[in-house]
Amino acid sequence: MDTITRKTMLYKTQVPGLDYAMNPVQGCSHGCRYPCYAYLMAMRFGKVHSYAEWIRPVIVENTLDLIKKELKKWQSKIHCVHFCFSTDPFMYQQPEIQALTLESIRLINAAGIPCSILTKGILPSDLKNLDQRNRYGISLVSLDEDFRKRWEPGAAPYADRIRALKELHADGAMTWVHMEPYPTPNLIAQDIDGILNTIDFVDHIDFSGLNYNPVVQKYPDPSGFYSSMKSHVIHFCKEHHIQFQ
Ligand code: SF4
């Protein structure tokens, strides 16, 4: 796998509810076609020049050195580190990336700082031995594998994502599902209850629609649809004692 170096790694996010974040990789072999906001930004700022380049991820080879250096400076200011906003920390079938993420989490946890992880890959069982304050999440907007192959072609099969999350939950980990970007019925006709019932064990669910795809605007009243789906998810969460975020 190709590598790059960077000057900094940990950064303060502007996202409400999140503290610091890091992205130890550039690009993402999941290649989501919603499209992926991180891909659009990477193209805009000249980090990559094509979709083909985006789906060939490159590792930031000095990630661990940067984390060690930055933790020494900012350890007391950092309350949590989120993985990731511009790539996937447990990219499917990318063992080098998975190993780098695990080592990064270990370093951060060793400094007394918990992490939050979000992936469309498979959360490894090694996570169960780490800081109990860590929070593990998967992105999930469907259970239909034909939909996944079309819209998230390189990501892990849905059932495998859920299985890994459930195993961590059974070991006492804090788990969540990020239901975004949820598709409108003109992209796929599906029953949201079918999805929710497979994830009724998690601690948190968040929900949001698909913003960057013109097909969504062709659906009659997309905002009405998303408002009704959000209410439905909130109701489900209340019934199942799950926190809605
Ligand atoms: S998993 Fe995330 S970063 Fe990777 S292509 Fe999909 S949306 Fe983009």
From TrEMBL:
Q: What are the protein's GO molecular function terms?
A: exonuclease activity; iron-sulfur cluster binding; metal ion binding
Q: Does the keyword Nuclease apply?
A: yes
* Signal peptide from the UniProt entry: none
- What superkingdom heads the lineage? Bacteria
Pfam families recorded: Radical_SAM
Q: Tell me which UniProt keywords the record has, alphabetically.
A: Exonuclease, Hydrolase, Iron, Iron-sulfur, Metal-binding, Nuclease
Domain Radical SAM core residue range list: 22-172
> Which residue stretches, if any, does this entry annotate as coiled coil?
none
Q: Which protein are we looking at?
A: DNA repair exonuclease SbcCD ATPase subunit
